[in-house]
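Schema walk-through. Below, the input block comes first and the output block second. Nothing else is stored per chain. Lengths vary across the set, and this one has 156 residues.
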Amino acid sequence: TLVGILNLLSKYSPEELEKIFLRKDRADGTPFPITFGDWVKFGEFITGISGGCIDKNGILEMEEGIFRKRLFVPEIAYNRITYFKGRMCASPGGGCTVKEWSANGDGSYTITPDLTDADGLSQFVDDILTTYFVTKNAEGKLQGFEEMKFRVTSAD
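--- output ---
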């Protein structure tokens, strides 16, 4: 209850309370980790329009980011053009991510792309494609990236 909270707080001096609670009316900080609820918002957050947020899954939406040293990611997609290993791979369909693949037993492979509802398959028979994929070591940790070129023999 409110009375109980006020009773508890009355046992501390204002100086002691400043050591316990973070201020919201001026700059303050703590050397300890802070856990937030399902998301953190910055400014007046409106998705796709203003402000920014980080949700409980670590998904970030903001206007821009500045990294002073480097950024490590397996893929960066910008306006449906995908960049890997310092090379630009332009595709009218925005490229595709492989959902699964299987060997056909004759040296060829069947690749199933991971397409969203908004994506259409933009690869056609006899297209020559370049792909970059993540390699992992025996422990399953990221080892690096590899490049492969292949010809599309069928697409549906």
